[in-house]
Input
Amino acid sequence: MLCKIIPEKCIACGLCQVYAPEIFDYNDDGIVLLTKDHEALQEFIPENQKDHALLAYRKCPVRAIEINEK
Output
């Protein structure tokens, strides 16, 4: 599963980091980052973290997270 973030859409609500801290982090302004690589805008999610990534995706109020399950 590929997870993409769109920092320009992020409103710094922090929900992604609450639901999937192993995947999502945030910068000093509260804008979404990927935990493993703060410069990356996408990463493949391990199978054991898939449910958390999907939950964070569903909870994001502005769709700053995109999921591609193919």
